[in-house]
Amino acid sequence: MIRTTLLALSALACLASPASAQTVEECDWRASAQALVEPWDAPQNTRTFANGDVRLAVTDVIEPAAGAYHLIIFSPPFDELGGRQCRVISADGNLGFTGLTLEAMISDYDPAIGLSFAIQSGAYDPKTGGTLPMVLLVTLNQATGAITAELEELP
After folding, report:
1. pLDDT at position 20
2. Taking Cα atoms as reference points, which of 134, 16, 24, 140 lies closest to residue 76?
3. Residue 109: pLDDT above 70?
4. How high is the pLDDT of residue 131?
5. Where are the alpha helices (DSSP H) in the chain?
6. Which of 5, 47, 50, 68 is the right S-S partner for 54, CB 3.0 to 4.6 Å?
7. CA–CA dist 73, 76 (Å, integer)
8. 153 with 134: CB under 8 angstroms?
9. What pLDDT score does 3 carry?
10. For the purposes of burial, counting CB atoms within 10 Å of the CB of 151, is it exposed (0-12), middle (13-18) or buried (19 or more)?
11. What CA–CA distance (Å, rounded) separates 108 from 11?
């Protein structure tokens, strides 16, 4: 059921516009504890997977208002001290998303791909000054630590 829903949402997003790659970088100021969206344990702000080894969290860095939200991923592989890798996903470099919520997120696991997430998000529309409804598609391979992210416009 989840895989079917994830595929349907991905297919719907593909009909609207081509995907654009988002930036996946090592954590920096965008992953500051000060920027974690509260309440910290609310399902729209943070979620865990893989028996707690993987955590997704939303941050709000306040400015620029048209791109203040970023997605943080803590995941394997573990370093020599047992710490997880930390990555931040942004719309484009330091510019984040106009909105990002994990509440209606769809997740799936395929051993050949890893974990997949479809996350409701928004991107700044410079033509109108408003927000374009988007879906952020993220894959995470826990064995290699590889993370991909694409943003697709919804119809």
Report:
1. 62
2. 140
3. yes
4. 92
5. 2-16
6. 50
7. 10
8. yes
9. 44
10. buried
11. 15
Residue 5: predicted pLDDT: 40
pLDDT at 47: 97
Cβ neighbours for 43, distance < 8 A, ≥ 6 positions apart: 102, 103
Q: Can you give the residue ranges of every domain in the chain?
A: 2-153
Assess contact for 53 and 142: CB atoms under 8 A: yes
Look up tokens 């330091």; give the residue. Answer: 94
Of 4-18, 82-96, 115-129, the one with minimum mean pLDDT is: 4-18
Distance CA 23, CA 7 (A): 23
Mean predicted confidence (pLDDT) in 108-127? 95
Omega into 77 within 30° of 0, i.e. cis? yes
Tokens 């991107």 locate to 123
CB count, 10 Å around CB of 130? 11
The amino acid occupying position 55 is R
> How many Å apart are CA 142 and CA 13, to the nearest integer?
25
pTM score, whole prediction: 0.85
